[in-house]
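Entry 14. Structure prediction run on the chain below.
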Amino acid sequence: MSVHDSQEVLRNAMLQAMRRLAKSVSVITCFHNGQRYAMSASAVDSLSADPPSLLICINRSSSMHAPLSGGADFCVNILAANQQDIALACAGRLKGEERFTAGSWNANADGIPYLADAQASVICRQDGHFEYGTHTVFIGRIEEIFVGDTVSPLVYVDGAYTTSTPLPPELAVCA
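Output returned:
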């Protein structure tokens, strides 16, 4: 087996392993040069509580990459279980501005779109980025948060959308 072959085997095994990592589905949005952008993503995570920040990982081939690379600030809209249609629209079913026909959208004072009824919308000022492989990791310093009343996340696992179900109290205890 060559080094290249073993890298391909490792890549495929990694992709299979990541199918088992359930992640909340978000729609990342930004506003740049008078145009709105939106894309579905699960590569989102908190980074630090001091300063409050998070990170997003964006493939360099996506249409969202250019405005973010140009310094656009962004919003992470954490979707609820009943918002699969928005996830699909922003995952490629619709293109460009059409993506904003799914859901109810508002904008903050800087024009960054946020989903009015998301579980949470986290508006970030871009605070750095670095490239790694096929993606760029963008760091967002949190500036504004809108939080909904319920916690019912849309989850992506093993190539499909699902939702979480609370465990019985006796199993839900964290150490």
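The chain has a mean pLDDT of 92.
Filed with the rest of this week's runs.
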